[in-house]
Design a protein that fits this description.
- The structure is a single chain.
- By secondary structure, the chain is mostly helical.
- Helix content is 85%, strand content 0%.
- It is built from 15 helices and no strands.
């Protein structure tokens, strides 16, 4: 191989191998982003299939059914996930098994509470817009699938904290891949509907959790020694972070909760497709959420910020490019992929892309507060953002329908980003990260990807 070609190919090869290993912070981040790109591609495939076969109304029923287990699982885990990762990363090797045992116990208890609350609320919210059979299935799913979602999230994050990012990422792409296979099978039988499509998604989730449990059994043993003490420590951290996580969850789902109650299923289907398509941009902060906190937790503030700031700059530039591409190609892509009837969702898409970009940057800043053991301030910012969002939804949805919900989301994301940005200096006593990339950033990224 000529030297000039080797000079180009060799660094790329080393970076690719490092990404596949996923051991260091940069490698873990790159692998997580690559996994999320695959996940997004699979989700687009299932989204296209369901949209074309079900139409806007059937797609709206599907979106309404799968909303509730994820919502109440996220609320149940408020503060618990970050607490588990933080304590697993800062505990001694001898105590890691005890921390995880306590985390799984705490997660199960929270899941039971979340599922019970959901089973009471779901019928009341859906009563005026959906058939009784759809509502009944939504209640059953809330009671059962909430537990699946809770333990899937906990185990994925536990593997990341244990340095097994590859296992966590494998479960990430396996879930939509299994769903696509099941969806094709259901479609071939001629039984595809919003309800059966949702059942296929739940079945894929159960298989993914079984895979995670099998992998966990190979490297973890239940250890109940000091269970009460660890439950108190995990709970103390979780209580401080729970309001912020809960507000973030409410902020992320409030639009669809309101829309399920107020607009027809067909319009909700248009919005659901636009929302799902706009989440292409959130592939970036998914990688941050997996790799950021484990890399920064337990480090001095200066070291944590040294890891955080280059990550912020890379995310800023990535989301700027992604948002520009989505704004230029959004409507043609909706028309081409989902069908001409879904092109009417393009105005929703443009606003939701802007909201996704703001949300990505907010997620990066949030990791700095979690790593600095300041989840309380993060909770306060989330509370303000959620309050603004709810007020905006109540004002704008009656006026503009689904478009009003998209605008309200963007306003809430902007308030969150502003609050977290101000807190970097006022609360953490640190300087805001600069926004321009330089040669040192690129060198650090390349070195991180090449490091074994």
């Amino acid at each position: 191989m000529p030297p000039a070609v080797r000079a180009i190919v060799s660094p790329l090869r080393e970076a690719l191998l490092g990404t596949l290993r996923g051991r260091g912070p940069a490698q873990a981040f790159a692998q997580s982003v690559a996994t999320q790109i695959l996940v997004i591609a699979l989700n687009v495939a299932t989204g296209v299939l369901t949209a074309r076969l079900l139409g806007p109304e059937g797609r709206g029923v599907l979106a309404a059914l799968v909303l509730w287990p994820h919502l109440f699982a996220s609320l149940a885990l408020a503060g618990v996930t970050s607490s588990l990762v933080f304590h697993m990363r800062t505990a001694s090797p001898q105590e890691v098994h005890r921390v995880l045992t306590a985390g799984l116990v705490l997660g199960g208890a929270c899941a039971a509470v979340g599922a019970a609350i959901g089973a009471v609320l779901v019928p009341q919210i859906m009563a005026d817009r959906y058939a009784a059979s759809v509502i009944a299935l939504a209640v059953v799913a809330t009671l059962g699938v909430t537990f699946l979602d809770v333990y899937t999230v906990l185990l994925r994050n536990a593997f990341v904290a244990l340095g097994r990012v590859g296992t966590a990422n494998a479960s990430g792409w396996a879930n939509p891949a299994l769903y696509l296979v099941l969806l094709l099978g259901i479609s071939a039988t001629g039984w595809l509907s919003g309800e059966t499509a949702a059942l296929g998604m739940f079945a894929a989730g159960a298989l993914t959790l079984a895979f995670l449990c099998r992998q966990l059994a190979l490297l973890w043993r239940a250890d109940t020694a000091g269970l009460g003490a660890w439950l108190r420590r995990l709970g103390a951290y979780a209580r401080r972070g729970a309001p912020g996580d809960a507000m973030l969850t409410v902020s992320a789902h409030a639009d669809r909760i309101v829309l399920v109650a107020l607009i027809p299923a067909a319009e909700f289907g248009l919005y659901a497709v636009a929302y799902s398509f706009s989440r292409l941009l959130r592939v970036i902060d998914s990688g941050v959420a997996y790799a950021g906190l484990p890399a920064m937790a337990g480090r001095p503030a200066a070291e944590a910020k040294a890891l955080h700031d280059p990550m912020f700059r890379f995310v800023l530039h990535a989301v700027a490019l992604g948002a520009l591409g989505a704004l230029l190609l959004g409507e043609p892509a909706l028309r081409l992929l989902y069908g001409a009837e879904f092109a009417a969702g393009a105005p929703f898409l443009y606003v939701l892309v802007a909201e996704a970009a703001l949300g990505c940057l907010g997620t990066v800043l949030a990791q700095l507060y979690l790593a600095s053991d300041r989840p309380g301030f993060l909770s306060a910012v989330q509370a303000c953002s959620c309050a603004v969002l709810v007020v905006a939804l109540l004002i704008l949805v009656p006026l503009w329908g689904a478009l009003g919900a998209a605008v309200a989301l963007a306003i809430g994301a902007g308030v969150r980003l502003l609050g977290l940005g101000l807190g970097v200096k006022l609360v953490l006593g640190l300087r805001l990260p600069r926004i321009t990339l330089d040669a040192a950033d690129l060198h650090r990224l390349r070195a991180g990807l090449r490091r074994a």
